[in-house]
Design goal:
Distance between the termini of chain A: 72 Å
Number of domains of chain B: 2
Protein name (chain A): SKP1-like protein 4
Strand order of the largest sheet of chain B: 3-4-5-6
Protein name (chain B): F-box protein
Structural class of chain B: alpha+beta
Strand content of chain A: 5-15%
Number of helices of chain B: 5
Largest sheet of chain A: 3 strands, mixed
Distance between the termini of chain B: 52 Å
Oligomer: heterodimer
Largest sheet of chain B: 4 strands, antiparallel
Largest interface: A-B, 29 and 29 residues
Helix content of chain B: 10-25%
Number of domains of chain A: 2
Mean pLDDT of chain A: 75
Radius of gyration of chain A: 21 Å
Helix content of chain A: 55-70%
Radius of gyration of chain B: 25 Å
Low-confidence stretches of chain A: 1-5
CATH class of the largest domain in chain A: Alpha Beta
Number of helices of chain A: 8
């Protein structure tokens, strides 16, 4: 299979088995992959565990855009970034985890900036709910434990 | 989810929150990244989120990353430093044991020439407290000066009652009135006339000076237990009409 590939192309395999053919310049934007390629410990197919196809596609889209428009105007890239990171919480969470795990600095920067904008004016209680699951903890400690103990037969 | 698969609250939380797509449990380095992008006010507020966050924010490593990102954070001009006299012994009045004060300039001396020489401050007395760039100085327990060391002007406050020992609090408030910047301050004195009263009194006379009225106002403070000055309580913090003895 590797012979049919063009030169300088890599295959990335997501956690659910889907494969993406990516030029090497794009793939090495991830420092983790770059290290693997440089050390020549990878064949043409690089497994990307912990990242599913959906998220991997997004990350690749981001990297491609950044690679293409390196010489272009920076403001263009900025608008792309702000549109790119404008997603739901779950996608943001997965993207940040993926970017952190694969060490894609530009993506992590853009994402963190977005989340920082989101939480800038929020109250402490809100942050607790969002980051620590505080609300659920409160509910559980007040009702849940109580119910277990009250439902028991005391004879 | 079956009941017996629950191991901790965290398990339930992660399960539920991931199910409905809310809530994020990030590793510490990402939280750091996020916090480094927030304004100072938010960061300080988020100290209250949890012990872990407080620890992270108070950490020296975080401070350096934060400062390198927000380089324009204002640095203090410098600080006052006083050495106790060589024959230093603590006896009563807090202002008697203090030796000469030195000002240590942290900024470039050429930038702020007005801060170069502050030795003449000793003519007014010892520095007791500072607040928002104003200093409270006193040569003896009855006379006080408020000194603005940027404009190099001082105000003499009217004399207080006759005290042999006194504890002082000083608080300064900024006020913006129609575009002009104005500082108002308050001084609180708790003093005793006789040395033996220092440790056994439930009521204390309190004098408050306000820059707005320009007068000392006397009030009586009663406490449930005895208020010992000097030895038991030293620092005073005045805020929102409260005096706290620490």
């Amino acid at each position: 299979m590797s012979s049919s590939l063009e030169k300088n192309m890599l295959i990335l395999r997501s956690s659910d088995g889907e494969e993406f053919i990516v030029p090497e310049v794009v793939a090495v934007m991830s420092k983790a992959i770059k290290n693997m390629v440089e050390d020549e410990c990878a064949s043409n197919t690089i497994p990307v565990p912990n990242v599913d196809a959906n998220i991997l596609a997004m990350v690749i889209e981001f990297c491609k855009k950044h690679d293409e428009s390196e010489a272009e105007a920076a403001s263009d890239l900025k608008t792309f970034d702000s549109e790119f990171v404008n997603r739901g919480q779950e996608a943001l969470y997965d993207l940040i985890t993926a970017a952190n795990f694969r060490d894609v600095k530009e993506l992590l920067d853009a994402l963190c900036q977005n989340v920082a904008e989101m939480i800038k004016g929020k109250s402490v209680h809100h942050i607790r709910i969002q980051f620590l699951g505080y609300q659920l903890f409160e509910i559980l400690t007040s009702n849940f434990i109580w119910n277990i103990w009250c439902d028991r037969d005391f004879d | 989810m079956k009941f017996n698969s629950i191991h901790s609250f965290r398990d339930i939380y992660i399960y539920r929150e991931r199910e409905r797509g809310g809530g994020m449990d990030f590793p510490e380095e990402i939280i750091m990244e996020l916090l480094a992008r927030l304004p100072v006010k938010s960061v300080m507020r988020f100290k209250c989120v949890s012990k872990g966050w407080n620890h992270m924010i108070s950490n020296a490593a975080f401070r350096t990353t934060y400062l390198s990102r927000h380089g324009e954070v204002e640095q203090p001009f410098g600080f006052f430093y006083h050495r106790p006299r060589p024959n230093f012994t603590y006896h009563g009045p807090s202002m008697r044991g203090i030796g000469p004060t030195k000002f240590i300039n942290t900024t470039n001396a050429a930038e702020r020439p007005e801060l170069k020489n502050l030795d003449y401050l000793h003519e007014l007395g010892y520095i007791l407290v500072s607040s928002k760039g104003l200093l409270l100085l006193s040569p003896d327990p009855m006379s006080y000066y408020v000194y603005d060391f940027v404009s190099k002007k001082h105000v003499e406050l009217p004399r207080t009652l006759k005290y042999s020992y006194v504890d002082v609090g000083f608080v300064c408030k900024e006020q913006h009135k129609q575009g002009s910047y104005h500082l108002s301050y308050k001084v609180v004195c708790i003093g005793t006339t006789h040395h033996e009263h220092m440790y056994k009194s439930k009521t204390r006379k309190l004098e408050t000076y306000s820059s707005e009225t320009g007068k000392w106002q006397i009030s009586i403070m009663t406490a449930k237990s005895e208020i010992g000055l000097g030895l038991h309580f030293t620092a005073k913090v005045i805020c929102r009409r409260c005096v706290s003895l620490v």
